[in-house]
Design goal:
heterodimer, A: mainly alpha, ABC transporter involved in vitamin B12 uptake, BtuC, B: 321 residues, alpha/beta, Rossmann fold, six-stranded parallel sheet
Chain lengths: 343, 321
């Protein structure tokens, strides 16, 4: 039993979890309104886009890559879907979701081909795509919003939908966005843990050479990771457009940092091969609840940035210290056979 | 060939100067965005009212180099006055000096140029007045006492901070019963972030009666949160945003006032100032139709259009930008 607890605490996710609980406890002590159903639901709704995108980013980071084109891909889907909604008063949400996923799949494929086939460094390839997309979108939209007046009324209604809501209290119940996020997280978890595809990506991230030796096609796996991420962004973009009932071409500037932040905070290693869905979910929750908790604890915005930064550094340092310790242990084991070969 | 061309130009100039007594060009930073499209309407309206040739010429991109090129072309064309919203004051400065050397009256509008390059500078708004107006409108909704919060764009945005500071100084003096619950909360110019922050503020301060939104996405995000929580009647939202984006929220009551200026009036004012100056008429106190009396500030150069325009559920449909 105590072994089990020890192993659980030694988990990568454990440190994030402990910090998350600590943050939530402190916030609740400062303001009991923090730990209310309605506040938790509001925070989760407000961060569902971030959560969905982070599932895509997780896959890319598992391959050892990174995606700096989150902003461009999200905005592209928002603008195309928004224009269709506004110009044709088109409000079939299923078709819009499929369209968003298809566009994301395509932009993701571009990223994947550049990284896997042309061997471009992921940061360069995705920054390039982001620049192309955002440049064009700014030219096309002039930065103008597609606003609530232009969008079909059903879009805003879908964004407001909540399950089990109390008709007496506005904005109560479980938001639709939370359900979508949970579905995406479950799908990603299932793929990474129960499907050969996901296990192969994990294996390749850990050791590309090793994975290729056992016959995995690293190029295709990498391409798939970027496509999957693109599809997640497409899904997130439609969810966002409904929730905000508007399209602002500048809404996602700098958003990739939040997405990457949530994944890294969740214990994923930028070098690939390490990271989990649970960790990423916890990372996103930590990210979201710190900000909300600080506002609820009546802490001024100037201090918030300092505290958020400090907590992130703390959480990531925890991981790195643990990792270094493990590595030191591993090297000791490795030394013997190497010497044996040399002899 | 050059001589022939020059002759044609001279002829064209003579013809145009006979046909049209006066040519005033208003140059925006760029054309094709709703804000500057709206000011074009004002310029055209002023031209018709005054019976002069009021042109609206600008680049398709907000690029100072393109503006310089256009100014040079206009000089060849022969114009009497140029009102410019420079994309970069320093880059257009030499071209403006060339205008002055050619006896063309130069003004700036919307955005200031270098002081030496212009005779008059037409501003949309007095920062202090805008800051104070926002506080007055908030008081109009929540009364002289109560808690309110501020959601701003970036904590580092100079223009937003000027508005906030002016409002705070004014509120401290005039409405001591108003209580700002926390320092301005940043929303990174994002509607989602403004929405999230407002949700948190509503939970953190249950007695909150009002929210002031600075930067154009902030009031919309705040209104979205208030709307979703069904607090349209309990929490007032007042802020700086554009009429088209605000319209839905003004109409359902989640946003109470949207405040900014009307770019059409600004374009109109620029033409009137140029026209009056060219004809040596007195600017001070001149009544511009639909805009109001002109007032030249103490520096003898700056002209401020007047109080900001306030949009409500009733008048928002009369504007399109």
């Amino acid at each position: 039993m105590s072994d089990k607890i020890k192993r659980a605490l030694g988990n990568k996710e454990a440190s994030v979890f402990i910090i998350l609980i600590a943050v939530m406890l402190i916030a609740t002590i400062f303001n009991p309104a923090f730990l209310t159903f309605s506040n938790i639901m509001d925070v989760l709704k407000g961060n569902a886009t971030l959560g969905i995108c982070s599932m895509g980013m997780l896959l890319i980071i598992l391959t050892g890559g990174i995606d700096a084109s989150v902003c461009g891909q999200l905005t592209l889907v928002c603008v195309i879907a928004g224009k269709i909604m506004a110009n044709f008063q088109f409000d079939n949400i299923i078709v819009l979701y499929l369209l968003g996923i298809a566009i994301g799949c395509f932009t993701g494929l571009l990223n994947g081909l550049m990284v896997a086939r042309l061997d471009l460094p992921p940061i360069i390839a995705t920054l390039g795509l982001d620049s192309v997309l955002m440049g064009y979108l700014k030219y096309y939209t002039n930065g103008n919003w597609i606003n609530a007046k232009e969008l079909p009324p059903r879009i805003g209604q879908i964004g407001l939908f909540r399950f089990f809501s109390n008709p007496e209290v506005n904005g109560s119940g479980v938001p639709l966005q939370l359900l979508l996020y949970v579905l995406v997280a479950l799908l990603t978890w299932f793929m990474l843990n129960r499907m050969l595809l996901g296990r192969s990506i994990m294996a390749m991230g850990g050791s590309r050479v090793g994975a290729e030796r056992i016959g995995l096609n690293a190029k295709n796996l990498t391409t798939f990771a970027y496509m999957y991420a693109g599809m997640m962004y497409g899904f997130a973009a439609i969810t966002y457009t409904c929730a905000m009932n508007s399209v602002d071409p500048n809404a996602f500037l700098g958003f990739e940092m939040n997405v990457i932040g949530a994944v890294v905070l969740g214990g994923a290693l930028m070098t690939g091969g390490q990271g989990s869905v649970l960790g990423t979910v916890l990372g996103m929750l930590l990210f979201a609840f710190i900000k909300n908790g600080l506002t609820l604890a009546h802490i001024s915005a100037y201090w918030q940035n300092i505290i958020v930064g400090a907590i992130i550094l703390l959480a990531v340092s925890f991981d790195m210290i643990k990792l270094h310790r493990e590595e030191r242990l591993q090297t000791k084991v490795d030394i013997e056979p190497k010497e044996a070969i040399a002899r | 060939m050059k001589k022939v061309l020059a002759m044609i130009f001279v002829l064209a100039m003579l013809v145009s100067s006979v046909a049209m007594a006066e040519t005033i060009v208003v140059m925006p930073k760029l054309v094709g965005i709703p804000y500057f499209n709206a000011s074009e309407n004002g310029v055209k309206a002023a031209g018709e009212e005054l019976g002069i040739d009021a042109r609206y010429v600008g680049p398709t991109e907000g690029d100072a180099a393109l503006q310089v090129q256009m100014i040079e072309d206009l000089l060849v064309d022969g114009i009497d006055a140029l009102a410019i919203a420079p994309n970069d004051p320093d880059s257009v400065s030499p071209a403006l000096q060339k205008c002055i050397a050619d006896d063309v009256l130069v003004l700036d509008w919307d955005t200031t140029a270098n002081g030496d390059d212009v005779t008059f500078s037409v501003h949309q708004i007095d920062d202090k007045v805008l800051g104070e107006t926002l506080i007055d409108l908030l008081v109009d909704q929540i009364g002289e006492e109560g808690e309110y919060a501020i959601v701003t764009g970036y904590l580092t945005a100079a223009n937003l901070n000027t508005w906030i500071d002016a409002g705070q100084a004014y509120a401290a003096e005039k409405y001591p019963g108003l209580k700002l619950v926390t320092d301005p909360v940043p929303s990174d110019e994002s509607q989602q972030e403004a929405y999230n922050q407002t949700m948190a503020l509503l939970q953190a301060y249950p007695d909150l009666k009002g929210i002031l939104g600075y930067s154009t996405p902030a009031p919309i995000g705040a209104a979205k949160a208030v709307q979703e929580k069904g607090l349209n009647d309990q929490v007032a939202v007042v802020g700086t945003s554009m009429p088209n984006d605000s319209s839905e929220y003004l109409k359902d009551g989640s946003l109470d006032y949207a405040v900014l200026w009307d770019p059409a009036q600004l374009g109109k004012l620029a033409v009137y100032v140029a026209h009056l100056t060219l004809n040596g008429e007195e600017l001070e106190g001149y009544e511009v139709p639909g805009v109001g009396p002109i007032h030249v500030e103490e520096d003898g150069k700056t002209i401020i259009m007047g109080p900001p325009t306030v949009w409500t559920a009733e008048n928002v449909d009369n504007y399109d930008f």
